[in-house]
Amino acid sequence: MLDTNTENHIETSSIKIYNIIDGIPIEVNNPRHYYSKGFFISDEKIDGKFILQLSLNTTNSIRHGTFETTTLLKLSSNDTDTLTCQFHKTTNSLICKKVVYNGSAVWEWNSDRIITIKK
User: Fold this and answer.
1) From residue 87, how far is each of 17, 40, 82 by CA, in Å?
2) pLDDT given at position 21
3) Domain count for the chain
4) I want to staple 69 with a disulfide (CB 3.0 to 4.6 A). Which of 24, 57, 63, 114 is the partner?
5) How far is CA 45 from CA 42, 79, 85, 96, in A?
């Protein structure tokens, strides 16, 4: 999917990340951040795969407690995936507890931090 040497690979330039804020998709564009578009793709394969690292939407105004956010991963003009993340916030921490990808739970807080997506 991310290997430029394979047919029908995803063009990095076509990937866009949107955070849903108050029901409105806002494209991630932080020119001062290292991953200004909200994602990073490894230059080399790790365990035989290229890795897409995604910055999750943590925008929420609550001070303490559990909340959910939604991030859209637009891989091309006709392929958009939805990540819903459950966070727990305290005075000193923000912990991702669960990730749901296109309606299916794919990660819980006590498991490996890498999920595999097959297209």
Assistant:
1) 19, 22, 16
2) 92
3) 1
4) 57
5) 7, 23, 26, 26
pTM of the model: 0.84
pLDDT at residue 41, rounded to an integer:
83
Q: How many residues does the chain have?
A: 119
Q: Which residues contact 65 (CB under 8 A, 6 or more apart)?
A: 88, 89
Amino acid at 91: T
Pairing relationship of beta strands 65-76 and 79-89 according to DSSP bridges: antiparallel
Tokens 């609550």 — which residue? 62
Mean pLDDT of 54-59: 84
Q: Give domain status of residue 118, yes or no.
A: no
The domain containing residue 31 runs over which residues? 12-108
